[in-house]
Amino acid sequence: MKKKTIRVALAGNPNVGKTSLLNHLAGTTLKVGNWPGVTVEKKEGSLFYEGYTINFIDLPGIYTLEPVSEDEFIAHRFLTEETPDVILNVVETPNMERDLLLTVELLELGIPMVLVLNMIDEAQKLGIDIDTERLEELLGIKVVKTNGRTGAGVKDLPRVVVETYEKGIRPKEVKYSEDLERLLTSIRESVDESKHYLIKKLLTHREYFQHVERLYGKPAYHVIRENRFAFAHGLYNEVIKRKPITSMDITTLLDRFLLHPYIGTVVFFLIMFTLFKISFDFSKPFMDWLDGFLNGFVSPIIKMIFKDLGAPTLVIGFFSEAFIGGVGFVLTFTPLIAVIYFLLSFLEFTGYLPRIAFLMDRFMHKLGLHGKSLVPLLLGFGCNVPAIVATRTMESKRDKLLVIAMIPFMSCPARLVVFSFFAITFFKNPTLVIFSLYMLGVVMALITAMILRKIALRGALDHFVMELPPYRLPTLRLLLRMVWVYLKDFLYRAGTLIFAVSILIWLSMNLPPGVEKPEDSIAGKIGKAIIPIFEPIGISDWRISTSLIPAFLAREIVLSSMATIYSVEEQGKKGDFSVYESAKKQFFSLLFATKEAFSSLINPFPKTFEVSEEHSTLRSSISKSMDERSALSFMIFILIYTSCLGTVAVMWREAGKKFALGFLVYSFVMAWISAFLIYRIGTLL
Amino acid sequence: MNLEDVKVGTKVMIRDLAGKDEVIRRVEAMGLRRGKSVEVLQKLGRTILVKLNNSRIVISKDIAKNISVE
Known about the structure:
The structure holds 2 protein chains of 2 kinds.
Chain A: E1 5-12, H1 18-26, E2 31-34, E3 41-49, E4 52-58, H2 70-81, E5 86-92, H3 96-108, E6 113-118, H4 120-125, E7 129-130, H5 132-139, E8 142-145, H6 156-167, H7 178-186, H8 195-204, H9 206-216, H10 220-239, E9 240-242, H11 250-258, H12 263-309, H13 313-350, H14 352-364, H15 374-379, H16 384-389, H17 397-406, H18 413-426, H19 430-454, E10 465-468, H20 476-510, H21 522-529, H22 531-534, H23 542-547, H24 557-565, H25 579-602, H26 616-625, H27 628-640, H28 645-655, H29 657-684
Parallel strand pairs in A: 1-4, 1-5, 5-6, 6-8
Antiparallel strand pairs in A: 2-3, 3-4, 7-9
Chain B: E1 11-17, H1 21-29, E2 37-44, E3 47-52, E4 55-60, H2 61-64, E5 67-69
Antiparallel strand pairs in B: 1-2, 1-5, 2-3, 3-4
């Protein structure tokens, strides 16, 4: 009886094209997740081949197996503790000499292995040719040549993996220098100890490594490292058929412009502007249409059906408002998330993203931040949710958490809607007020980063070492697959949380059953109970504190919920609802949205920042229960407090539950303190 | 001479690496080892971009000054 599942670990240096290979191998089964307890991304997928299920697990891209960084630690632990059946060792052929160090370390494990020479096309262009037969002979394993971009050669992999698994094709033992070999043999206690294990034993037992030090006159780990390099170097010289020729390539040419201190900076901001414009302006009409479709079409239909069935009002409300509202709320994020993932994946696979880090480091490191963090931070001004999602491209956990904690203070258009309402109502110079609030947000982000660096995320900005891969054009297929994979993960993990909380908020507004006035609902009672907290910052009206409860979904809701609570605007129009007429209307508005999406791309000014005038009747009611000072204090509170379910949900997904909830409390406290200070200073003036 | 002082466009050979072991380990694993020749492509702020065979590596100057070259 043969085992039906083969577990295959994909190992290799960063940028060797493992993701493209995995995409060709696993197709639609590809999914993303995180390695347990850490923020490092894990990709998995499977394939059926001749009665076997082959599970592919993508290990983080690493240069060496010695576990120091988080990525190396994950890869090391997986390979030594969960021992895969087969290692698929992916080598970037143009850089084979360097990649062979990791190969040597993997060979030491003695696990069945297949060596993949990827990007063989690029190697050929550079005049590099590998004698695969000799390589197979020297290592005792199968070698497959592939082109990750086109997928050429990938179809051979399942067959070779199965063969390697069935025959248990383990690599030949790596042979180091005679002295070292003799030493390693002398500490061997049983035959099944791998070279990896023996070396570990040598390096961790005092009597062993001191012996090596006496023998060689240098630290034992130096000796091991030199032996590994020597083996890799020897292997490379044995199998390389032609020495590389250096010629002017596209990467060198492009880098002249894109990495130029001035031209490169200008190009970066142009790219950033385009990224911003496409992600927010292009997806906005679709988000609005989806919202209208669900609330203006699906919801009335459900209401009609339930009414015909004679269901009680609360049940009708629950399904037509809470359920559809919740689903709709999650779905409105999808066009935005999809577009952001598409563009970010494009920048990542082309090789531009790491270049941003190099280019922007001179500005960002002064703030103690990684050069790459500029991208998510700028995106934050468009919407915090995709901005947090974009931190996925940061390698170090410290940098990633730092940026995630800064993003929510970047003021987004949802806040602009609230600001412009209050600023226009209460101030003579609303533009100045709004601009100051944006600045205050940036200052708050920097303060937060400083605090975090002082307490939790200490440690100097890491010594900057990174590779800039050559420019490569990804296939559309790969990009679309990645978008789908990430979107699925977003809907599954962040979407469920967003949905659940939005239901809870609806319930708080509509319970106990039969509640008529907002004052009598659970939310209204909570709103009244928390008034003592808000009084010191100038908010003493329960209607305003209550409006903060539904506004936790998204800040701009604060206005419509105030309108409801002040009962100045009727919620929803009454009248006849015709399915046919509405369907026709929805269809045309979708066409219009598509037209809008494309035409907004031509408009050079980001449309996201255009605010339309609404809630004019609310204006007069609000101006009675607030004054300038309390309005300013309220705006500051809304700016700083993370009153945004989407943000909290993605934070939860990217940085964990503790971080997300901790941050929520932190932002509330900071918001309160800032609002309090401004309000009190205002009182003195 | 150390790598930090090398002019842009110059090719040099690495003689030795000093400094913290985990940094050396990382730099060596990326291919910057004794005897390898590298070309300095660009210097920007506190970083240096070098070309080594077919790969391009960015290192900060505080690492570069611990790499002696000739």
